[in-house]
Amino acid sequence: MARTHASRARQSFPAIIVNATNPAPLFRQLYDGLAEAIRLGQFPAGSKLPSTRALAQHLRVSRNTVHLAFEQLIAEGYLEGKIGAGTYVAQTLPEHLLQFAERPGAGSVRSGKTRPLSKRTATLLKVYPREPWAGRSNRKIFPVIPALADFPRAIWQRLLVKSWRDGGDELLDYGWGHSGLRQAIAEYLGTARGVRCTADNVIVVAGAQQGIDLAIRVLVDEGQKAWIEDPGYPTAYGALISAGATPVPVPVDDEGLNVESGKRLAPDARLAYVTPSHQFPMGVTMSLRRRLELLDWAAQARAWIIEDDYSSEYRYAGRPLAALQGLDRDQRVIYLGTFSKVMFPALRLAYLIVPRDLIPAFLVTRFFASRHPPRLEQATLARFIAEGHFARHVRRMRSLYARRQAALVAASQRQLAGLIDVQPAEAGLHLLGHLPRGVSDRRLSQKLADAGIDAPALSSFAIKRKLPPALILGYSGAGERTLKQGVVKLREAVAGLVKP
After folding, report:
1. Which phi and psi angles does 335 have, rounded to 5°?
2. pTM value?
3. Is 438 exposed, middle or buried, given 0-12, 13-18 or 19+ CB atoms closer than 10 A?
4. Terminal alpha carbon distance of the chain
5. Would you say residue 321 has pLDDT above 90?
6. Is 86 left (phi over 0), alpha (psi -120 to 50) or beta?
7. Which of 42, 74, 168, 335 is most buried as measured by Cβ atoms within 10 A of its Cβ?
8. Average pLDDT, the chain
9. 335 and 323 in contact (C-beta within 8 Å)?
């Protein structure tokens, strides 16, 4: 009798696949299959389902898995359980469940109809037609990322455990940033970067991008103009658009942002976003003359400056240059620093140095966006800095990156002569590989991407400017051997497009 019952259950049961290799729990897979069968009418209203025992045997799962799926379906109104009589499809399904079966597919849209988006988001989709970093995680050659394999993980793990054990209530509470980390940041910046601040001026944020977005939202109204370097950091451009501001591309030359050009283009701009210590992506350093001109313009125009100091620690000739903020006597500069380049990107910790009178505005604006980053990581980083590990790590990485840059330059000069010109730089985590005129750097970059090589086109960072073709070659995230192998692959990929 049991065999006959199981056989009937198998015969009357629609095809439902439950796969143990699927990351979704087995009961959820069964739930999804049954719900879909009911919506499509494969189980009519009022029909009886197989018993949990028969269904478990048929699918080769435990009865508990079937019980969990049935309980969820009963709770949502798909099924009705009758004591002593079995489980049945509900006589009356909710109307929205019946309508679901008429759709062309979950998450799809009827033909000819589009979903309305804000104008800002529609513009962002033009800037980034796909996810900004999609497809880049598997490219191990020339990435502009820290040397993750050389991060002192054992030390970090020990401090993480110690911070949790000794943290107290502050780790579990709200705040504008862990007090110990804000103090450590202020002391470090005063010594290493010439930044004038105290712990009270430090606001910890979840990465540099949040810092840029927060500063723009606090300081710029919708429709107001903002200078941005051209070429420059594309996500800063996106942050301006997202906030409804009007980006004004200002050309960059050998001295950095051309302030006179900015004043001609938009003398009444509300804000200027700059990377003066090591301009991205050109790699130039803003001259003292330009820095003073920029500060003078901001004071006269009552404008603001976001100084993005994203990789100032990595300077290989002399000491790191003093920050623009340290020259500011009118408190017009919002200083932005990040730990993504000196620690590791997943840490998602950065900071803003904000004039005292603006702190309430920044805090309330951040409050309605994300409150604050997780405090355990902040406490751990505070210990990492206070115990001297941060300074030692930066020194080691500075030496390591200098060697890797030298290896990339030497290999390029041997393998790429006449194809790509790669010259050393005094700072940063990448070099420019200049191409012969007439070569499309975007076409070449795409060809390299198909081969697993991450070498973005310089022109992709330009807004309005026409730039000589070049590739951005990162050297920080790959070992010397990998860099040398990458240069060989680069030569092979370039050979068909560039004639020596």
Report:
1. -90, 130
2. 0.76
3. exposed
4. 82
5. no
6. left
7. 335
8. 85
9. yes
